[in-house]
Amino acid sequence: ARAIITYNGRGTEMLRHDNVNFWELRHCGNNAHIVGDDSQIFSAGTGDFLFMKGLNFPGGANGLVHKSPGVRYHANGMVMNRLLLKVDVPTLS
Predict the structure, then answer these.
(1) Helix (H/G/I), strand (E/B), else coil: 48
(2) Is there a contact between 12 and 6 (Cβ–Cβ < 8 Å)?
(3) pTM, whole model, 2 decimals?
């Protein structure tokens, strides 16, 4: 299981597992080829708390895949920073 919260900046993006090319994700990491349909990307807001199951969750259900949003810039060209907290829980008892 994984918990994610964005404190500053754009929230984490997520998509359904069937909209992800997992081979590309594992081997190349080319973002343009990982997501099948960009219109099916959903976003959590700043301050929203996400709790996601993951592959080892009992029952084996497919879940969401999360990713960082695209980089945003201030008017002066500086990158807008994000601050987030990600906590992984290795097993649930």
Answers:
(1) coil
(2) yes
(3) 0.77
